[in-house]
């Protein structure tokens, strides 16, 4: 059986990939998630259980929080890096670390193939592909969502037909949580005339009044928030 490593987050896109690659294409799927600060221990257990339910032969979580901070976040803080003076590059910075750790794992188990759930929109596909191709050009990349031009609605329909039960309303949105930030994507983020509904966010606003925040730095490195 053909051995494949799947970059797996437990979300809709990668869950579709796990089922499709194992059931329809006959791959031996080894699901891997990389924790860059967005997962609790309970969430990691849930992701692992889901990966196996979706047809993966194995699941592994790689803890890259310290690596992510030392190699990336610390330098973003040093440089006060903000795209358009607004966006701290939270997702794009994560993807670099995730791609490096995933390809290292794929090489360690001698996988012939590697897959990710990026769509044809945005730059995640480029980040994954470039790092995979650079660090392991001998491993073939498979991208089911991008190649088949699938919408989230089509993915949901496919999983329903294959007996997969998810929180379908939540599955309408792509949520990325990490040490350096959280992003939410969905139909509303593809236009400028509709706001995201409150239920799309993974956490709700706790305070509505003005807050004073104290940030402490030592030699340019952030070391405390409100003296903690």
Compact overview of the structure:
The protein contains eight helices and nine strands. The chain is α/β, with parallel strands linked by helices and 228 residues long. The protein has one domain: Rossmann fold (3-Layer(aba) Sandwich), CATH 3.40.50.
What does this structure look like?
- By secondary structure, this protein is of the alpha/beta class.
- It has a single domain, classed as Rossmann fold (3-Layer(aba) Sandwich), CATH 3.40.50.620.
- Helices cover 39% and strands 19% of the residues.
- The chain is built from 8 helices and 9 strands.
- The strands form 3 sheets. Strands 3-2-1-4-5 form a 5-stranded parallel β-sheet, with helices on both faces. A two-stranded antiparallel ribbon has the order 6-7.
- Helix 1 crosses helix 7 and helix 4 packs parallel to helix 5.
- The longest helix is centred in the middle third of the chain and has 19 residues.
């Amino acid at each position: 059986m053909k051995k494949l490593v799947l970059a797996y987050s437990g979300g809709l896109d990668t869950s579709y990939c796990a089922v499709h690659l194992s059931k329809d294409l006959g791959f031996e799927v080894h699901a891997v998630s990389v924790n860059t600060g967005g997962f609790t221990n309970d969430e990691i257990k849930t992701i692992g259980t889901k990966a196996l339910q979706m047809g993966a032969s194995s699941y592994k979580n790689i803890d890259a929080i310290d690596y992510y901070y030392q190699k990336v976040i610390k330098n973003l803080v040093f440089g006060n890096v903000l795209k358009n003076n607004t966006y701290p590059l939270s997702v794009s910075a994560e993807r670099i670390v995730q791609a490096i750790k995933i390809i290292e794992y794929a090489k360690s188990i001698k996988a012939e193939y590697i897959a990710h759930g990026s769509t044809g929109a945005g730059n995640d596909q480029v980040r994954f592909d470039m790092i995979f191709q650079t660090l392991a050009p001998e491993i073939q990349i498979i991208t089911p969502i991008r190649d088949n031009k699938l919408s989230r609605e089509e993915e949901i329909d496919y999983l329903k037909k294959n007996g997969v039960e998810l929180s379908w309303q939540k599955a309408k949105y792509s949520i990325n949580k990490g040490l350096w930030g959280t992003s939410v994507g969905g139909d509303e983020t593809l236009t400028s005339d509709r706001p995201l509904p409150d239920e799309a966010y993974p956490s709700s606003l706790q305070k509505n009044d003005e807050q004073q925040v104290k940030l402490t730095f030592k030699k340019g490195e952030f070391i405390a928030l409100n003296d903690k």
